[in-house]
Amino acid sequence: LKQEKNENKINKIGSKNHLPNACTFCCFEEFTRNIYDLNDKPVNPFIIIPNLEKNKKFNRGIQEDSHEFFLSYLDQLRESCLHEEIDHNHNNEKETIIDKIFSGKLVSRITCHKCNNISETNEKVFDISLSITPKSKNLNECLNSYFVKEELFGENAYSCDGCKTKSSATKQLFLKNYPSILSIQMKRFDYYGRKIHLNLDFPITLDMTPFCSEKKLDEPKIYDLYCIVVHS
Fold it and tell me: 54, 70, 165, 225: most buried, per Cβ within 10 A?
């Protein structure tokens, strides 16, 4: 009897028809609506749990990595938006609302020192993963290290398609097609799997213009800090 009362209490803030095969996006929409409808009251995440269990990496009652959860759930939301296109047109390249909000493009640009040929490779990303060193003090320092120029020479010389020779070159990463919401992950584990316990300063506003592939001073890329997730 007690269990039945608890189930009825839970169902007052959501539908009873949420099954494992329910639309991920619809379940998330209802979950978000419940958060705002209940103001400051806690919301039971029972609506989205069946969707999480579609991914074999996540098991109910077991602590999981917050970053892996974020990327996995974005992927499930995106697949939910693409459901009809995947079933009928086998098209996974269609841009969804998830892409428009969270995705950007990471550009790897290599410039040959011999012929000045420029080669670029674009990669779609939903976040930026930054390494932390014992000397890291703040987010800006980590970003500068991530987007710093890398010199390719000697054994790491670049095989240029322009001059058809192996020569020294400069490699650098840039961002373009900036997402509306920028997600940054701080990698708090070193090469040996040891956790790095280090405090980092985060600015309230973050200027990403210096890391843009096409710097337009009249269109600065400014982000306001919305939240920080600490997985301890």
Answer: 70
Distance CA 187, CA 190 (A): 8
DSSP conformation class of 164? S
169 within 8 A of 112, measured Cβ to Cβ: yes
pTM equals: 0.77
**Angle, vertex CA 82, rays to CA 79 and CA 83, nearest 5:** 85
**DSSP letter string, 32-50:** HHHHHHTTTS---GGGTHH
Query: Phi, psi (5° rounding) for residue 16?
Result: -85, -5
Residue corresponding to tokens 């890391």: 211
Identify the bridge partners of residue 205 per DSSP, sorted by sequence position. 224
Q: How far apart are CA 178 and CA 212, in angstroms?
A: 8
Is residue 80 within 8 A of residue 25, CB to CB? The reply is yes
Angle 66-81/24-37 helices, nearest 10 degrees?
Answer: 120
Task: Report how far Cα 117 is from the mean position of its chain's Cα atoms.
Answer: 31
Closest Cα partner for 127 from 148, 146, 109? 146
The pLDDT tens digits for 129-144 are 998 887 888 999 999 9
pLDDT tens readout for residues 160-198: 999 999 999 999 999 988 899 999 999 887 777 778 788
